[in-house]
Amino acid sequence: MGVEAYSFENTIARGDQIFDQMRQDALSEKPLEDEYFKAVGGEHEQVMEIIESIRQDKNRIFSANLPNHGQIPNLPIDSIVECPVVVNSSGLHAIMQKPLPVAAAGVLATRLMWVETVVEAALEGSRDKFVQALLLDGAVTSFEMAEKLADELLEVQSAYLPQFSKKEQS
Length: 170
Prior knowledge:
Number of helices: 6
Oligomer: single chain
Structural class: alpha+beta
Strand content: 5-15%
Shape: extended
Number of domains: 2
Strand order of the largest sheet: 1-2-3
Helix content: 40-55%
Order of helices and strands: HHEEEHHHH
Largest sheet: 3 strands, antiparallel
Radius of gyration: 22 Å
């Protein structure tokens, strides 16, 4: 601790610059050049290749995030999973995978339940579900600690989490 590896402020400022430029490009009447989509590396560069595969019925393989409809047999149905897909003119089609090792499936099932619980807590403004989410995360090791942390976080973030203040908290 005490050693700054990178500037958080500079990272945010650079992200804001990129976002502002993208907004200007999106609102402009001028068409985007094809090279625009290839200018920055990363996952989004595959968008053009995926669109091309759909339009030209190419049957190419990509990785994509899709609802689990059994392609990973030992993970919860409808959870969002990254998996290999075949892309053609009829869309994205998940490729069936072998079951994950039991330990990996258990860890992922817990993470998926954590995500569901966080979302439910936020949508419902449920302090109880927020406490459950803190416990599922694993960083908090006792119910009492989770309750204390939840109360402190909800208090300091109350301006951004109005759904929690509208309910009487238990």
